[in-house]
Amino acid sequence: MRAEFTTAFAAMAAAGLLRPGVDAEFAAVTTLAVWDGAQLQWMHDHDAIDVTETLRRQLRLLTTVDV
C-alpha cells in the first residue's frame, strides 16, 4: 500500500499538486500513519474522531487541491 501511495503522490507532485517541500514518500508514509491511527482511535471511541475528516485534513496539509 505504501508503494501505491508513493506512486500516486509522485504523480501528484509531477502535476504540481503537492505543496512545496512535500515529497511523495513522506506524503505516503504520513498519510498511511494518520489513516491507521485514526482508525485505531475510532475503534476505541467512535465519537472521539471522524476518520474521513481526519484524512481530508491530512490531504489538505500535503496537497494544493481542495479535498
UniProtKB/TrEMBL annotation:
Family matches, as InterPro entries: Tet_transcr_reg_TetR-rel_C_sf
Matches recorded under SUPFAM superfamilies: Tetracyclin repressor-like, C-terminal domain (SSF48498)
Domain of life of the organism encoding this protein: Bacteria
Protein name: TetR family transcriptional regulator C-terminal domain-containing protein
